[in-house]
Amino acid sequence: MTLDTGLEHKFARFGDGLTVSDEAVIEGYASLFGQTDQGGDCVEQGAYCASLKSLGHRGQRVKMLWQHDPAQPIGVWDEVREDSKGLWVKGRLLESTQRGREAAALIQAGAIDGLSIGYRTKRARKTDKGQRLLTELELWEVSLVTFPMLPSARVAAKGSFLELEDTWRQIAEVLTGAQLEMARR
Hints:
Keywords: Hydrolase, Protease, Viral release from host cell. The protein has helices at 49-57, 98-109, 161-184, and strands spanning 8-13, 25-32, 41-43, 63-66, 69-82, 86-93, 114-126, 132-145, 155-157. The protein is α+β, with helices and mostly antiparallel strands. The chain has one domain.
């Protein structure tokens, strides 16, 4: 018998070349704004803000699970935040647990390459393209999974190219804003 918790799941692919650092630290995007996943859902920027704020006020964290199984926590997310690109996560696989060691080995071997968020939809609306635009979500967990639904989101090991990529994206946003301002004059 399966217990229906009402939770939905949204998947994201790690990306190419993922490795796990000696400390088993992983980081990257669990969800990307404005991109439609294979289920026809698109998350709007700001959709996680209220949930993350509420968790912080209660002193709780988003859980790191194995394949959405609440009986199999495999690590901790030390940082979960929204930025202009999506929902960014950074955490540690707990190699003191059997499943944590297995997850690290599977990531290093390329057998696991996805993240998936577990959430409840608080607010959503249909777009004229027939998509479901998710405007407010109650985030419960981010899992390591085998089959992701949003191939463009990625996770990388600590100290990887994602920090540099984020810096270049921020520089590009500033330059684009400056160009628009100059065009108005």
